[in-house]
């Protein structure tokens, strides 16, 4: 047993549990955490802001399927990361934030980085937030977090380490035990009942949410055997692929999808909260019996279902596919599905004019395996509906929390997780400036990362909302910098294509570059 300062032991423990990368920023309070990183064989990625570090950990987790880890300092370090942790909580992303904390706060005031309740602050955006007051407690909390990431709904955790404890000599963490890694499955009788109902239905429909993405193969087999139509939330884009003729795509938020859903005689919802950010309306539209399957039992009553099943989506769908007979006839037709999708695409094009053709050109220009990270921008709002993804888990967006500044740092984390594979960031001109400083990190890493900047010179979504509410638009126009010059100042490449063809060429060149490339696309880009 080799004794080391606790901060070093934590890094060695994380490495032994499978952590290869940590995103963060060192400070005077957490330098002991950095003592062991290199010795443990972990790569550290230096962010320019703790929010960026949190988003990088989020993007890394979504791309790799492994927990993303970030190190932050006491007080402002954790506060800066809280936006990213809130996004990870909302979108069920396994992020482990480890921060330093003051040794004592009740009887001392005026300390550097002092907060009233740092642990409580972390708890507002994390599944839980705890302070470990001994090496054994810290090790237990880390193992608890990693175990819960694998066995329950994955949501961020925060562990804080007192400054003096981080530098104290400690025994190493115990050898990793064989953890229980299986998630809950459905009762066989429940699976049999769902199979019976699906087989008896004439027009069954399956609604997939983000919780089903990792089970795409079983999802496709279930749908094939049941003859069901499919509709998906944005987070489940690509779960069926564009080749399935009864796939309504990710048009769930279209108001008219309620009428389509009402035509089903059985609705199976797998891995979706059916939240406001999934529907953007008060009612789902289901009139038939509804079956809901979710790993989180707290989500199954909103709205209530005729049959509610607590289960991991993958285990449930695998069992269900095996219980279904071979493919039978469907009451749905490819013609009606195609007509609905064409109508919805036209609606999106009319509501957000000029974006759909750019989406089409961009999609044609990128490799099929490209992983996309988008920000809160009208370009992404249109693309999430009209872009037919051919594989799941390859478009990541700040769906629930809806924070600006997500795309660039999250894409950096995703690119780190998938070296040699294409990654694309999409941001709007305003939101990009929330985390533009992370360009420095992308340049340091030499990432061949295209960053498509959609510039409509204003907060266009907010302006449109004000107009709809009959409010005179106010504070929706901001002076933008010379984005290409700014990117070059960071050491990145930059391009400002004037046509869709030039944009496609710039994107393709960016994938082969030796550093990130900002591709400045102005609204109204020419089609020629």
Task: Briefly characterize the structure.
With 528 residues, the chain is α/β, with parallel strands linked by helices. It contains 21 helices and 19 strands.
Description:
- The chain is α/β, with parallel strands linked by helices and 528 residues long.
- It folds into three domains: 167 residues, 3-Layer(aba) Sandwich (Rossmann fold), CATH 3.40.50; 149 residues, TPP-binding domain (Rossmann fold), CATH 3.40.50.1220; 171 residues, Thiamin diphosphate (ThDP)-binding fold, Pyr/PP domains (Rossmann fold, 3-Layer(aba) Sandwich).
- Helix content is 39%, strand content 16%.
- The chain contains 21 helices and 19 strands.
- The strands form four sheets. It has a six-stranded parallel beta sheet with strand order 3-2-4-5-7-6, sandwiched between helices.
- The radius of gyration is 24 Å and the shape is globular.
């Amino acid at each position: 047993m080799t004794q080391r300062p606790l901060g070093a032991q934590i890094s060695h423990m994380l490495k032994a549990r499978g952590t290869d990368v940590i995103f963060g920023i060192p400070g005077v309070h957490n330098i002991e955490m950095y003592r062991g990183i290199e010795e443990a064989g972990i790569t550290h990625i230096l962010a320019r802001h703790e929010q960026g570090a949190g988003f990088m950990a989020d993007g890394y987790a979504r791309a790799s399927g492994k927990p993303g880890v970030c190190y932050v300092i006491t007080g402002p370090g954790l506060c800066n990361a809280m936006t990213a942790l809130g996004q990870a909580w909302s979108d069920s992303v396994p992020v482990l934030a480890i921060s330093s904390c003051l040794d004592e706060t009740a009887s001392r005031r005026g300390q550097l980085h002092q907060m009233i309740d740092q642990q409580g602050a972390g708890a507002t955006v994390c599944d839980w937030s705890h302070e470990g007051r001994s090496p054994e407690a810290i090790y237990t909390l880390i193992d608890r977090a990693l175990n819960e990431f694998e066995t329950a709904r994955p949501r961020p955790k925060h562990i804080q380490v007192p400054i003096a404890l981080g530098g104290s000599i400690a025994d190493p963490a115990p050898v990793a035990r064989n953890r229980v890694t299986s998630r809950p499955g459905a009762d066989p009788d429940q699976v049999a009942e769902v199979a019976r109902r699906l087989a008896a239905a004439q027009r069954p429909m399956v609604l997939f949410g983000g919780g089903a993405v990792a089970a795409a193969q079983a999802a496709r087999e279930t749908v094939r055997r049941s003859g069901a139509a499919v509709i998906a939330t944005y987070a489940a884009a690509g779960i069926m692929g564009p080749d399935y003729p009864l796939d309504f795509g990710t048009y769930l938020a279209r108001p008219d999808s309620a009428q389509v859903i009402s035509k089903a005689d059985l609705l199976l919802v797998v891995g979706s909260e059916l939240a406001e950010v999934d529907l953007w309306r008060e009612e789902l539209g289901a009139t038939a019996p509804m079956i809901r399957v979710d790993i989180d039992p707290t989500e199954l009553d909103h709205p209530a279902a005729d049959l509610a099943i607590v289960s991991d989506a993958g285990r449930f769908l695998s069992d269900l596919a095996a219980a279904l007979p071979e493919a039978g006839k469907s009451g749905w037709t490819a013609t009606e599905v195609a007509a609905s999708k064409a109508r919805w695409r036209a609606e999106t094009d009319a509501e957000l004019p000029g974006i759909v053709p750019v989406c089409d050109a961009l999609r044609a220009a990128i490799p099929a395996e490209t992983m996309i990270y988008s920000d809160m921008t009208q370009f992404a709002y249109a693309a999430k509906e009209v872009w037919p993804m051919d594989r799941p888990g390859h478009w990541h967006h700040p769906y629930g929390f809806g924070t600006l500044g997500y795309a660039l740092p999250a894409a950096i984390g995703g690119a780190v997780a998938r070296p040699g594979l294409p990654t694309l960031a999409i941001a709007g001109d305003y939101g990009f400036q929330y985390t533009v400083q992370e360009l420095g990190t992308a340049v340091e890493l030499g990432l061949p990362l295209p960053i498509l900047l959609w510039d409509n010179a204003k907060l266009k979504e907010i302006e449109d909302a004000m107009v709809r509410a009959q409010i005179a638009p106010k504070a929706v126009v901001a002076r933008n910098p010379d984005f290409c010059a700014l990117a070059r100042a960071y050491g990145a490449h930059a391009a400002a294509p004037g046509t869709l063809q030039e944009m496609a060429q710039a994107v393709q060149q960016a994938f082969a570059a030796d550093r990130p490339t900002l591709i400045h696309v102005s609204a109204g880009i020419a089609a020629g």
